[in-house]
Amino acid sequence: MKNFKIPHVFIFLFLIIVLCSVLTYFIPSGSFDRTTRNYGSMKQTVVVPNSYKKIPKHYSIEAATIGENSEGKSSPVSALGVLSAIPKGLADSAILVFYVFIIGAVFTLIQYTGAINAFLFALIGKFKKKPKLLLFFIYMTIFSGSAFMGIGPETIALIPVFLFLSKSLGYDRLFGFGLLSIPVYLGWSSGVTNPFTVQIAQTIAELPIGSGIGFRFIIYLVYAIIGFYFIIRYGDKVKKNPSKSLMKNDSFDLDEFGIFEHQKLARKHIYILLFFVLSYAAILIAVQTIGWGLIEMSACFIGILIVVTKISGMTGDESMEAFTKGLKIMIVPALVVGVARGISVVLQEGMIIDTILHNASSGLVKLPKIAAAEGMLFFQSGLNFFIPSASGQALVSMPLMSPMSDILGISRQTAVLAYLLGDGLSNIIIPTNGVLMAMLGLSRIPFEKWFKLALPLFIYTMLLAMIFIAVAIVIGY
Fold first, then answer.
1. Highest-confidence range of 34-38, 209-213, 429-433, by mean pLDDT?
2. What is the pTM of this model?
3. Any idea what DSSP says for residue 196?
4. Are the CB atoms for 268 and 313 separated by under 8 Å?
5. Residue 390 in domain
6. Would you say residue 147 lies in a domain?
7. CB of 398 within 8 A of CB of 204?
8. pLDDT tens digits, 339-384
9. How far apart, in whole angstroms, are the C-alpha atoms of residue 350 and residue 397?
């Protein structure tokens, strides 16, 4: 165990695809009947309870190697099917992959203009005598960005700024990291309008995008308060007695980032940030009022890219250099979506999704609704270890969670909430979270140090998640 190393996320996901393919040889195939129902102006395809039936399997050498269809029977996933699951997954999630690339590249372009760094330096100077007010403002900015816009991997570029801020105010390295990462993951969990989680999950669950926002906003407020109190409490303890730091022997040397450049806030920086915030707000309004989807949102981000380039005064070559740099940063997060979709592909082709659903729901259906919904929350938390991608997870788990909620008599909105909380909160501590591990590596913080700090927060927030799920059932969310 001492020399155990978690493999690269792509290798890890491919191994899960292989494992799921092997399972198609042993788990019985089966299917539910499905019907449609109206949900407002939308139609939902729903599972018919108690309609599950087994489907006989067809075994042959051809079926195991290149695949073979047999009428009325299900074939386990072939060797060729394992390899083709990844390109099929990428094809199935092409629009989403493109959207992840575009939004990441636009954020990188804005960072490249210096607007974010200049704004933070201006804040440090303005609130020098009221540091906690400054910290709360920064914390809520990141928290809101994560909850409303799905900011996650894009914050990696801000790590030097937050470490510099922490050191200049007398805190340790863990505090600076926590001030950035805690609002990212707790905001992500609340998923008010997060395009990477709630919008994808609601699309798969055939719910109107943006529906149920009121209850998620309450969760957003509760988690914002809990997270800020948690990190400030740790920071105050370290500031009062540096020996209380979990990294007390750390010299907190930032030389690895070179000379930290102080940028003055210029008028163009204000224009860039103001334009972006207003533009994104307009996009979110359009999503919720006129039914825009990922294609329209991607188009708008391309428009934002063009306008930001013009405001910043960058040449076309300079903007494309920043744009391509952003694409490179987003290669892994974007492609993980498609690779993770490959898991769903093999489960569907092996026709074992409904069998898993049948067995899981058979156990949960015997429980009271609240206990069954809590079971869905923990099911999702466990799944997060194996599929370290929120949007990739939505593509795998929501096809299971949506019909499971139908069988259990739980609303699909509550199923989406269980997915959001189960996915987001566990991201705080799981080592398969590639973004977390990348951020820790850049910050030079050992995983075990962060785990020791973050574990109590994870426990507190999971207990709150159980309460939120119970309330959702009671109020018919």
1. 209-213
2. 0.69
3. T
4. yes
5. yes
6. yes
7. yes
8. 777 887 888 888 887 887 777 777 777 888 899 899 889 888 877 7
9. 16
